[in-house]
Amino acid sequence: MALTAIENLTDIIEVSKLLLKLLDTADIQGQSENKVESGTEGRIESGIDSVGENKKSIAESTSHDNSEQINTAKLLKLIKHREDKIYQLFEHFSPEELQLHLAELQTMAALDSQLIEKVNRTQESAKSEILTLKKNRKAINLYQKR
């Protein structure tokens, strides 16, 4: 059974909201990890790390990598689902049919703008984190050479 335009729009809106929520959750997790990492970097620079802490951080890192891969896979699946639904919406329904659901289309467009803005902010944040990590890596390497 083919979905109606309103069912497609409702599904797109729900997936968009879920994507925003997942991106917010990933952003919050990233911020809390940055606080932990900055504390760890201070210990590295002062040379106080113990073997037990290293084992613990390796285990946490491995666990985090697995959950991050799962979250990434979930995000990609949702993005693909949303993309397919949007394609179906504009492929199967005429502009006249879609005009009947203008409020939902506007909601979808607003959520789309929020998603784009969130992804752009996340991308900029990731770029700055990468640059910071590169600088920190250089400092650690210089410290270890001395």
Explained architecture:
It is a single chain. The chain has 146 residues and is mostly helical. It has one domain (5-145). It is built from four helices and no strands. It has helices spanning 5-46, 51-92, 95-99, 102-145. The model is unreliable at 35-59 (pLDDT under 50).
The low-confidence parts are 35-59
Count of all domains: 1
Class derived from helix and strand content? mainly alpha
Whole-number average pLDDT? 77
Strand content: under 5%
Order of helices and strands: HHHH
Name the overall outline: elongated
Query: Could you give a short account of the major beta sheet?
Result: none
Throw out a few tags for this protein.
146 residues, mainly alpha, 91% helix, elongated
